What we know:
Blueprint lengths: L2 E5 L6 H12 L3 E3 H9 L3 H7 L2 H16 L6 E3 L8 H10 E7 L2 H8 L13 H19 L2 E4 L5 H12 L1
Parallel strand pairs: 1-3, 1-4, 2-3, 4-5
Bound molecules: shikimate-3-phosphate.
The site of shikimate-3-phosphate (S3P) has 10 residues, from loops.
Amino acid sequence: MRNVILIGFMGAGKTTVGEALAKRYGLPLVDTDWLIEERAGMTISEIFEKKGEEVFRRTETAVLETLLSDPETKVISVGGGLPLREENRRLLKQLGTVIYLEVKPETVWKRLEGDTTRPLLQGGDVKQRVEEMITARSPIYREAAEVIVTADGRSVDEIVEELEERMG
Ligand code: S3P
């Protein structure tokens, strides 16, 4: 079996669905944000604040390269902005089967209301920003993905079942 990779916007449920898929297939789950935090010895917010987004984005690419040289099959949940770099999309395709968990802006607001861990969603008109970011990113996510699944209003079990059917 190839690695299973989950991409999508913040709050799409990549880690939650990833956990369920990992359990179902008996595979370990890794999340690129966890790996970055481990490397840096800092939280994502601290990295953005102290080193800047550019350093964070470079670390995302470095983490993908490390995962590519790891022979153990995994479920990999990927930070929402990682697929935006073309180089990363190329690496993702090499790494395994890429699944895009698609969500509407309303789903994101509801899930992430009061969240303080995502530096790109702090302050200002968050609803408008989420809408603009999803509009800008969704064609890129679609381009990066082999399988696209809707996550709005669906349970984790429903999503996992659909993915199992579609991935074989
Ligand atoms: C980001 C998504 C976050 C995290 C960082 C930037 C983004 O990951 O990598 O805050 O640009 O969409 P999640 O998608 O796991 O929230």
